[in-house]
Design goal:
Structural class: alpha/beta
Radius of gyration: 28 Å
Number of helices: 22
Shape: globular
Largest sheet: 7 strands, parallel
Strand order of the largest sheet: 9-10-8-11-12-7-13
Length: 745
């Protein structure tokens, strides 16, 4: 390099290399904000910058010198005195961006809570207590009977917000009334973070001596405690075998060593149950992180974890991105659950990323399930994961008795046979509870004209070759598409023949609810699905309303996920036949997991449980295998079939999807992708219309990539993906790349 060129580089202004949350696989260079030294803006800190005609918040990922003659815009603001992403987490997120072949800016943004992603100031992490002021002490004697005691009790416990949130979720409303009347004063207390305590002063975990594990549980607990560094475990335990007890004792040991623990659960509805049990047993604040919290609550928990103040974090999928500077253990409960996979935007799998983080953090990772995914089972069988088995239910609980009901040629009432209804009556008369499982919400799957055959189809998702039925809701008054959300009132008459003979066909949870309410008026009948659990903690409120008294729960797969219902003695599974003949190669695995999980809700305490599986295909091999040999008999046979067919986990897949308003555009884009990938040594299937060829008005196509070795797939994509981003065809479609897809639709 010439001396002049070296001098130009030395005198060129310092710049910041920024990853922005935009769908472009590149970094962007900016000058530091006016008056700010670029060297003082740390890698991993946020930077607010102009981008086109708008302002966006990105993250600094490097420093450099401006190229001669290149004019750069200056950043607007550097809001952070210290980096938000650093060390292991930043390195793991860089790895994730490479694995998903996704823009780094989008990956880094996904790891931040929404408030921080938008560039908002860090939340106030100071902790506050409340006390009566002089006006409050004067007003207290004059308050009506009953109020002073309640007020005094509230004031005594206001400092413990975690306890209040669990015991009295509405406490903030009366507190606001007290503040408006100027009867209380806010006092800053020691400690920082919502529900946190100062580092090093956490109370010792509650002794677990009263919770004596059985022999299998103790073997699992000891194996996890002995683990040094990264150690992946599969905790394979039948439903009700006490996997949570293993988690609790492993976490208690982690806390005793002064380390942090992260616990992932598949659904928001499981979080209150998990929090209550963990807080009771562990004796330390347990922080929640899920989408049911508001933005400031999520940001506060995320920052408490980043500072090490949050010692136990329980959360759903996105909690896998919390910083863990003092990590000691990661637990993924119900690891098989599909909700750990993000199906839009950044298509990551939280379980798999938890394994990656565990390796980088050098800590044990425990994957727990009664029905492990075939990928996880294969990893355990091949020795990549240590296998821990819990073959028996904890305590005196016994496995439920499973019976297959052949409902062919039998009358059905909202999908329920006479035998099932008689079993429900007997269970209720015996003081037990009943779960009726139907994995289809709404009143009925389709609205049909009995005279001419017309049925209600979604205008945004249907094609002439494949109409998409709209689900009937609100007892036949409303139609809704469960794919795109389109809604409309049910027509008063058939649009084709003007007949008044429109009839809902089939049965959803709403119709079953109506039938059972009419038949069993003396007991509560509670429906649990997406329509009835939209509010915060709604699922737990439904369980609390039922309590232990006799009653009926009706619901979808939300009820199959880890709930412990001690008085549940009967499970009736309605309408499983649809899943027996799906074209998706994963359908058998999903159905087997669902049936075993929902069956496992019965008989978890000292009362025996019974499971009735209604079907028109009692001889189907999947049902026969599950009833005769259990989940592992099915899994062994399915793994052999997958190996023979070259399906995961014996092959590795990626799915390129594209959609547009015009049918030819996705196919043109995917044909370009196929041209770029040809000759790379991987198998290419397509491009073809997607199994659901139209959704929300967009025509959809896809290209499936397969390879026996993961490395070959990534090498091919590394060469093709940058060219796809740069192609003119990419700007005319909405496209995505899904590594390790769970859903081929």
């Amino acid at each position: 390099m010439a001396a002049g060129a070296r001098l130009d580089r030395m005198t060129a202004p310092a710049i910041l290399r920024v990853a922005l949350p935009v769908p472009l696989p590149r970094l962007f260079d900016y000058l530091p904000p006016p008056g700010v030294d670029a060297a003082l803006v740390a890698v991993g800190a946020r930077l607010r910058v102009p981008f086109g005609q708008r302002e966006v918040c990105g993250l600094v990922v490097g420093h450099g010198q401006a190229d001669p003659g290149v004019e750069l815009r200056a950043a607007l603001d550097a809001p952070d005195a210290a980096p938000l992403l650093r060390g292991e987490l930043l390195a793991s997120l860089r790895w994730l961006a490479g694995y998903l072949h996704a823009p780094l800016g989008e990956v880094l943004a996904a790891a931040l809570p929404a408030a921080l992603r938008r560039g908002e100031p860090l939340p106030d992490m100071a902790r506050y207590g409340w006390a009566l002021n002089e006006a409050g002490r004067t007003a207290l004697p004059a308050m009506r009977p009953g109020r002073p005691r309640a007020l005094a009790e509230l004031l005594q416990v206001l400092r413990d917000e975690d306890w209040l949130d669990a015991a009295a979720p509405g406490w903030r409303t009366p507190l606001r009334a007290l503040r408006e009347r100027e009867l209380v004063a806010r006092l800053e207390t020691t400690g920082t973070g919502s529900g946190s305590v100062p580092r090093g002063s956490e109370p010792a975990p509650v002794s677990s001596a009263a919770f004596a594990p059985n022999a299998e549980q103790q073997i699992a607990i000891d194996a996890i405690r002995r683990a040094a560094g990264f150690a992946p475990f599969l905790l394979d335990g039948v439903t009700g075998s006490g996997k949570t007890e293993v988690y609790l004792q492993a976490i208690a040991d982690c806390l005793a060593r002064g380390r942090q623990a992260l616990v992932l659960v598949p659904e928001i509805g499981l979080t209150p149950q998990a929090l209550a049990r963990f807080r009771t047993r562990l004796g330390v604040p347990v922080h929640a992180l899920h989408s049911g919290l508001n933005d400031s609550e999520r940001a506060a928990t995320w920052l408490a974890a980043a500072s090490g103040q949050a010692r136990v974090i329980v959360g759903t999928r996105s909690a896998v991105f919390v910083p863990l500077p003092e990590a000691g253990l990661i637990v993924v409960d119900e690891e098989h659950d599909g909700s750990y996979k993000q199906f839009d935007g950044l298509r990551y799998h939280a379980r798999d990323f938890a394994i990656v983080r565990g390796r980088a953090l050098a800590v044990p990772v425990v994957l727990g399930s009664a029905t492990p995914s075939l990928e996880t089972l294969h990893n355990a069988q091949s020795g990549r994961y240590a296998l821990l088995r819990l073959r028996q239910r904890a305590g005196d609980a016994r496995p439920p008795q499973v019976r297959v009901l052949d409902v062919r040629k039998r009358p059905l009432h909202a999908g329920l046979s006479e035998e099932a209804l008689a079993a429900i009556r007997a269970a209720l008369d015996g003081g037990g509870q009943v779960l009726v499982f139907r994995n289809r919400r709404g009143y009925a799957p389709v609205l049909l004209c009995h005279d001419c055959g017309w049925s209600a189809h979604c205008p945004r998702c249907s094609t002439p070759e494949r109409p998409t039925a709209m689900t009937v809701h609100a007892h036949g008054k409303r139609l809704q598409c469960h794919h795109c959300g389109h809604r409309r009132p049910s027509p008063p008459a058939c649009p084709d023949c003007a007949s008044l003979g429109l009839q809902p066909q089939g049965n959803g949870t709403e119709r079953i609810e109506a039938e059972l309410q009419a038949r069993f008026e003396a007991v509560p009948v509670i429906r649990i699905d997406r329509g009835s659990t939209g509010q915060r903690d709604a699922l737990q409120k439904h369980f609390d309303a039922l309590g232990s008294r006799p009653g009926i729960l009706i619901g979808t797969q939300m009820l199959a996920k880890g709930h412990d219902l001690g008085n549940l003695v009967l499970v009736v599974v309605v309408g499983i036949d649809e899943g027996l003949f799906s074209a998706d190669f994963r359908s058998g695995e999903k159905l087997a997991q669902l049936l075993i999980q929902v069956a496992g809700r019965a008989g978890r305490a000292d009362r025996p449980g019974t499971v009735l599986l209604q079907t028109h295909h009692p001889e189907h091999p999947l049902l026969q295998t599950l009833v005769g040999g259990g989940y592992h008999a099915f899994a062994d046979g399915e793994l052999a079939l997958r190996e023979a067919a070259g399906f995961p986990p014996f092959a590795h897949l990626a799915l390129l999807r594209a959609e547009a308003k015009r049918a030819e555009l996705p196919l043109q884009f995917l044909q370009l992708a196929k041209t770029l990938l040809e000759g790379s040594g991987i198998d290419l299937h397509g491009p073809l219309p997607a199994p659901m060829p139209r959704r929300a008005g967009y025509v959809r196509s896809q290209l499936l990539l397969a390879a026996p070795a993961r490395a070959a797939l990534h090498v091919a994509l590394e060469g093709a993906v940058p060219a796809l981003y740069a192609a003119p065809e990419a700007r005319r479609v909405r496209w995505s790349l899904d590594m390790d897809p769970l859903d081929l639709y």
